Here is the input.
Amino acid sequence: MDALRIKRVREAMRKAGLEAVFVTNPKNVKYLTGFKTMLPGEVQSFGDPEGFALIHKNRCDFLCDGRYIDGARQLPGVSAQLLDMPVNAKTIAARVKGLLPRGAKRVGFERNAVLYSDGLELAKYLKGVRLKPAEGLFAELRECKTPGEVKMIRKAQAITSDCFDHMLKFIRLGMSEREVALEIDKFMRTNSEGNSFDPIVAFGETSCQPHYVPDAKRKLKKGQMVLLDFGAVYNGYCGDMTRMVFMGKADARYRKVYNLVLEAQLKCLAAVKPGRTGHELDMIVRDTFQKNGCLENFLHGTGHGVGLAIHEDPRIKKGFKTRVEPGMAFSVEPGLYYSGWGGVRIEDLVVVTKTGRENITRTTKKLIELKG
Here is the structure.
């Protein structure tokens, strides 16, 4: 258990008037206790949970069934609590109520990390306890990373860069998009905890789809652009990077689009500093594209926060007024997409410092041409 994080949580609880918080989102359980579930999402069913946390003034309880109790007992600073079978909302509510400090009435819970039916049952069985929404508490805390968290993200991004270097040696003409994606997956599983998301590999015109699924039948040909978007996971923290390569000699159109996307990204990166809003940073990219007559080909926001989740706050998007602060980590990834031709996206991760930003992505952004 990270003492600094727990201290920050308890201070946030005090400000919110909460005497305890029942934590169900696996990412937040990991954030508080160090326990990593095997669940891919951020909601646990009360009928088959992997682990919950109950935070209050004096301690942190970790609730799980027999599959995880031995590992839970090894977690530093955590009191492991065995949930007897069968596990359901009624038994969970009884255990939570028994662990609450005497007289505790105001308990926070995460509405977006509880099934609707489980939430109704929990409220039913927690008689005398007032449940209050608390999901925003963790979203705000996780926005600004501690130095230890930044170290994890930096390591994940370094592995991601290593993977790209490996792929430059691996990619050959005739390979399928799926073959390339599987090699990325193999590298990540060998050198990290795995992928922070399913790798995106797109050849030629399929690169015009920002979130494309690699095809097993689509083969790489000379004269095609290749979009690679992937990330490693290190100690639960995510990396994320997009790079382009061209098979053969890049033509004039590709060079023009690539250089324009790079220009927009570099302008945005240079503007990152405390006090700027996500909206302002996003508009730097949009203004660049607007002046070049291609704004309609920018199909998504400029960036998103990265941490224990691959997409979290802050959002670097139009309309988002949150001001960036030291410790925030997020992507800067403008792109231009043309149906029937393809797309170009360039993505780095940055961490906001007291005076500006640190780009923790070391991979080159020079236009790369491969012989194949």
